[in-house]
Design brief:
globular, 2 domains, 16 helices, MetI-like fold
Length: 367
């Protein structure tokens, strides 16, 4: 028996061990004749598409040159030459040409703030100070008027930095508003509960375009004479209110998903309502709803393109305006594809980061 066992072990030892990738492919793509046939058809179609895309986007594409050269290969190759010609307008819109280093530096500060906040070791009391300092630096760069910088009104802001401003402030300020609305909707005080329910259902019942239109056209009519609010601020308030209503329902779902034992344990410890909410209830509820919460963030980031309705040029609308130039008219799909890659990078980064945070916060569950 020992010799037979040794022979079997020796035979298995001579075989190469399959990697996890090969095992996954065998189990998911070629586990049966139907899966094998379907996988082969999809691989064929994918290969055909990749072959066409490489030819259109790389081999036959025009990377530099005039619009006439692009028109010569229209339908055969992509026209990437529009980006060297129009990249400044796409990224910075109508911001003064000689001062466009200021929104560029503002974008870099935003990227630094995102990267700094993504590291869990930086989640301490210094984080709010870093964000306040970064946002003050962005405000000085964008507005100017001090430190020898020329003043630039908000009407001239646009492009990528406007998208980052609207989405960053929208997410950051809508989140605490959503928490208050979710707690208010679950409150035992009828007045507070009714106000929160009316607000959430009213905002969720209308599209964001309607809110932006009301903020731009109707809201100024209710202000006292002589008082005006910049349309960028009005758009930002509309986006915050809209995102807050949707996030409130996500947070409320997390609160309802918690077992009653958590609330009873907080009462047994003698904690007040706000102590229990801050230390026990909210951390667990928010951990449960990370995926839908990030979905709302991603949707908000893309919905910033709707500010065109009130005359603001975010990066998508700046790209649309850039190809309205008669010389480059007709190359909109090429420009939109390039801009879509920017949206994809930001949305994919948010999605992957949320998956990592969710995995780290739920490690205790799998022990």
């Amino acid at each position: 028996m020992a010799n037979g066992h040794a022979a079997v072990m020796g035979g298995n030892a001579g075989r190469p061990t399959e990697s996890k990738a090969v095992q996954w492919i065998r189990a998911n793509l070629f586990s049966s004749w139907w899966n094998t046939a379907l996988s082969l058809v999809l691989l064929y179609l994918l290969g055909k598409f990749l072959f066409w895309f490489v030819g259109w986007g790389v081999t036959n594409a025009i990377w530099y040159g005039a619009a006439t050269e692009c028109r010569a290969v229209k339908g055969i190759g992509a026209c990437w030459a529009v980006f060297p010609e129009k990249w400044r307008f796409i990224l910075f819109a109508t911001y003064p040409y000689e001062d466009q280093w200021r929104p560029a530096l503002s974008c870099l500060i935003f990227f630094f703030l995102y990267a700094y906040s993504a590291l869990r070791r930086n989640w301490n009391t210094r984080l709010p100070a870093v964000w306040i300092g970064g946002l003050l630096a962005i405000a000085v760069l964008m507005w100017g008027g001090i430190l020898g910088l020329a003043f630039v009104p908000q009407e001239r802001w646009g492009g990528l930095v406007l998208t980052l401003i609207l989405s960053t402030f929208g997410i950051a300020l809508a989140f605490p508003l959503a928490i208050l609305l979710a707690l208010g909707r679950r409150s035992h005080m009828p007045a507070i509960k009714s106000l929160c329910v009316v607000y959430i259902e009213l905002i969720r019942g209308v599209p964001l375009i309607s809110l932006l239109f009301m903020a731009s056209v109707m809201f100024p009519l209710f202000l006292p004479e002589g008082i005006t609010i910049d349309k960028l601020l009005r758009a930002q308030i509309a986006i915050i209110g809209f995102a807050g209503a949707y996030l409130a329902e996500v947070v409320r779902g997390g609160l309802q998903a918690l077992p009653k034992g958590q609330y009873e344990a907080a009462d047994a410890l003698g904690l007040s309502y706000w102590q229990a909410t801050r230390m026990i209830i909210l951390p667990q509820a928010l951990r449960l709803v990370i995926p839908p919460m990030v979905n709302t963030f991603i949707g908000l980031f893309k919905d910033t393109s709707l500010v065109l309705i009130i005359g603001l040029l975010d990066i998508l609308n700046a790209a649309k305006t850039a190809v309205s130039d008669p010389a480059w008219r007709g190359f909109g799909p090429d420009v939109y594809f390039g801009v879509s890659l920017i949206y994809f990078v930001f949305c994919f980064a948010m999605s992957k980061y949320s998956q990592r945070i969710e995995g780290e916060l739920n490690k205790s569950k799998h022990r």
